[in-house]
Design a protein that fits this description.
The protein has 19 helices and 13 strands. The chain is an alpha/beta fold. The chain folds into three domains: 4-200, Spore Coat Polysaccharide Biosynthesis Protein SpsA, Chain A (Alpha-Beta Complex); 204-324, no CATH class; 331-495, 3-Layer(aba) Sandwich (Rossmann fold). Strand 9, helix 13 (359-368) and strand 10 (372-378) form a beta-alpha-beta unit. It is elongated, with a radius of gyration of 28 Å. Residues 5-117 form the Glycosyltransferase 2-like domain.
Length: 499
């Protein structure tokens, strides 16, 4: 069976119920885990009743990019299937999804470089009349490329690029950015046979004006993908320069009046009026042309040019030095003694375990983000006959009891003179952790307190952060590429992308 996890970011809208009902009523039983990421900043936790294998994760807000990242990082399946919370899958959607993914696996076996599959989108419009401007905009989703209303990616490919860029705060451009980073323009994302329905959401008079905030995101796309990013993403160029011209004409009219230059004021006013009328007519002509729609188009057509220009300037300034997105590491490896807990030489007594200050809280922050945690620890006391493996296991159990669960604990029991390849500074423990978790070296970080931790990480191709203690030698501190005063500070840096 093809393994996928269905990830749904949600704001708890009523449409979520229709999505869950459609998944529960599929022609083939949905045996995949479903992760709902509640992206509301507060409120009571969502507790939907569903026969699905359902998990709810709270993000505390942050937008759909961050919500999707929280979802896929918790998954352990080879595929991740994203759905929006306002779509309704066809009754055979899951059956066709499995067939689409099986074809992709076959293509990979035949040498094709494919990493994703997009579903087909249907946007139903009201019958018996022309669509409104808002409805036409939603209808455009049918021909949009790589939208995450229904898109499945290989999990390892998502991890390799750090997932969605969380600097995109809205459901806009974050999907195109990810697709371009994953090479969609080179045919790495195919179109499947499954289908979803995307209803037109209700909208108030000013919905199109609020959409102008997306102009700032366009400048982030430009900073990341170059001035021709629209061509690469098959995205419309839009009317930005027309909006700038209309806004400049309005400013000229106001400036002319303030300076008591009637000729300049009149020229600006005419330019503004002509530009606004042309824009309004382009939006009114294809629509129903009823009183409410005409009023809405006239009002918003006057307000949109300055709003679009303002958000464009804001985006240009904010993202002028934007660098490629890295995201969070998928795996953080932690030395035990001196890093997670106070160093008690050759400790075999769980009662002597004392966590480092703030360790539990710092580790829980990584867990909430879906980052995997594992311990890598030298325990030469076993090889020297000072400890038993059972004692080491009991101490490790107490560490997990006090600091929370770890995905795994990797121990080297050998003495230094044994010449093993697992004792740090050799990379064996780190490579074992990477191999068993399936995490690439460049998506992992090791936090330790001495030079052998840093050297083991470097030998395995993993970044390291040194958190010195009094037993750390000065030359080890000087040689470390990254340092932090405490474990909490090290994890703060990782969460800020400083790794």
């Amino acid at each position: 069976m093809i393994g996928t996890t269905i990830v749904v970011p949600t704001m708890g809208r009523p449409s979520l119920g229709a999505l869950l009902e459609a998944l529960a009523a599929q022609s083939v039983h949905v045996d995949a885990p479903v992760v709902l990421v509640d992206d509301r900043p507060g409120g009571a936790p969502l507790a939907p009743q569903s026969p699905l294998d359902l998990t709810v994760v709270r993000s505390g807000g942050g937008g759909p990019a961050r919500a999707r990242n929280l979802g896929w990082r918790r998954a352990r399946t080879p595929w991740i299937s994203f759905l929006d919370d306002d779509v309704v899958p066809d009754p055979d959607w899951y059956e066709r999804l499995l067939a689409d993914l099986a074809r992709l696996d076959d293509a990979v076996h035949d040498g094709a470089d494919v990493i994703g599959s997009a579903g087909l989108v249907t946007v139903p419009l009201p019958p018996g009349r022309r669509p409104t401007d808002w409805e036409r905009g939603t209808k455009g989703l049918e021909t949009s490329r790589w939208i995450t209303a229904d898109l499945t990616y290989r999990r390892d490919e998502l991890a390799a690029v750090g997932g969605f860029d969380e600097r995109f705060p809205r459901a806009f451009r974050e999907d195109a950015d990810l697709a371009l980073r994953l090479g969609a323009e080179r045919g790495r994302i195919t179109t499947g046979t499954r289908r979803i329905t995307h209803p037109v959401r209700p909208a108030d008079d000013w919905a199109s004006l609020r959409q102008q905030t997306g102009n700032a995101d366009d400048f982030l796309m430009r900073a990341l993908h170059g001035p021709r990013w629209q061509r690469r993403a098959v995205a419309p160029v839009g009317r930005r320069w027309s909006h700038v011209a209309v806004t400049a004409a309005a400013a000229l009219a106001v400036g002319g009046m303030a300076a008591r230059r009637p000729g300049i004021a009149a020229a600006g006013a005419v330019g503004w009026l002509v530009g606004t009328a042309e824009f309004a007519w382009r939006r009114i002509a294809p629509g129903p042309r009823d009183g409410a729609e005409v009023r809405r188009m006239l009002l918003t057509s006057a307000a949109i040019p300055p709003a679009a220009t303002w958000h464009s300037l804001r985006g240009w300034w904010r993202h002028r030095d934007a660098r490629p997105w890295r995201g969070l590491p998928e795996l953080v490896l932690l030395d035990r003694d001196g890093t997670l807990v106070e160093d008690v030489p050759y400790n075999g007594d769980p009662a002597l375990v004392r966590p480092m200050a703030g360790a539990r809280e710092a580790l829980d922050r990584l867990r909430r983000e879906g980052v995997r945690l594992a311990v890598v620890s030298n325990q030469s006391g076993v090889g020297r006959g000072l400890l038993t493996a059972e004692q080491v296991g009991a101490v490790n159990g107490r560490v997990a009891e006090l600091l929370g669960p770890f995905e795994a604990t990797y121990v080297c029991p050998h003495a230094p003179e044994d010449g093993c390849d697992c004792r740090k500074p050799a990379p064996g423990l780190v490579k074992q952790a990477l191999g068993e978790t399936g995490v690439a070296p460049d998506r992992a970080v090791l936090i330790g307190d001495i030079g052998s931790d840093v050297d083991a990480a470097a030998a395995a191709g993993v970044r390291a952060v040194l958190v010195p203690t009094p037993r750390t030698r000065p030359e080890e501190v000087a040689a470390a590429p990254r340092r932090a005063a405490t474990l909490t500070d090290a994890i703060d840096g990782i969460l800020k992308g400083e790794w």
